[in-house]
Amino acid sequence: MEKKYNYKLKLSYIGKNFSGWQKQPNRRTVQGVLEEKLSIFFNEEIKVIGSGRTDAGVHALGQVANFKTNSFKNSEKIYRYLNATLPRDVAVLSVQHVPLSFHARFSAKGKTYIYRIYTKPDPFLFGYGWYISKKLNIKSMLSALDLIKKEKDLISLSKKGEYIREDVEIREVYLRYDGSIIEIEITASHFLRYMVRKIVGHIVQIGLGSLSIEEFENIIKAKDPSKGLFIAPPEGLFLKEVYY
To answer: Which positions are annotated as active-site residues?
Structure first.
């Protein structure tokens, strides 16, 4: 029987001590801790749907999820309860009562991810960025990102798998560098698994001079995940926002 009420959550979390978003047996996951707390609060089994799965070690500034229940509860009470009982590496930013048709994954119109690289030693960024001590050619990295903007088929820069939609509409790409931290921000219609980390992995190899723009272009044109060999570590990746 269809449950009567639907709630939308916006949340942030540090991915460091989670085995990713998706619930797994004997693993600490974001979905798992949310379902545990919500099932107690509503006194029924609650299933939480995320906008997408973040991998182990990946952080979220604005993940979105929804869950359905048979009981109506005040959104403010849910918000206060979750923030009082969830572990400190997860925070609920908002709770909304939404129509039953809302689905955190399938209703999403786009997402933004940020990848952070730090180029000067900083213990406060350990676990929250990729440290690269060698000099990077920012100009070459920008040229490589220009290629990404023009491509829709980025299957070479993803993990092999069965995707509902392989074509990705890249909407915005930015690279910011303040002399210490590089932030690469990508907004797209959706993302294939490992896509941002593989884009960054290849962009960094170009910045280091280990991969040419032409070689990168050939990897993309191959449309083969086995050709995209470089992947950035998960700790530099942040899901910034999901759009509806």
So the answer is: 55
Q: Which fold has domain 5-98?
A: Alpha-Beta Plaits (3.30.70)
- Beta-strand ranges (E) seen in 48-89 are 48-50, 59-69
| CATH 3.30.70.660 residue spans of the chain | 110-243
The region of weakest confidence among 78-87, 99-108, 144-153, 198-207 is: 144-153
Tell me the per-residue pLDDT of 203-235, one tens digit each, with 9 for 90 and over.
999 999 999 999 999 999 999 888 999 999 999
- Stated as kind and residue range, the H or E segment containing 239 is strand 237-243
pTM, two decimal places: 0.93
Cα torsion angle, 84, 90, 91, 92, sign: negative
Q: State the amino acid at position 21 in one-letter form.
A: W
Q: Is the pLDDT of residue 55 over 80?
A: yes
Residue 100 in 3-state DSSP?
A: coil
CATH 3.30.70.580 in the chain is located at: 5-98
- Contact between residue 33 and residue 64 where contact means Cβ atoms under 8 Å apart: no
The pLDDT of residue 159 is above 90? no
What's the CATH architecture for 110-243?
2-Layer Sandwich (3.30)
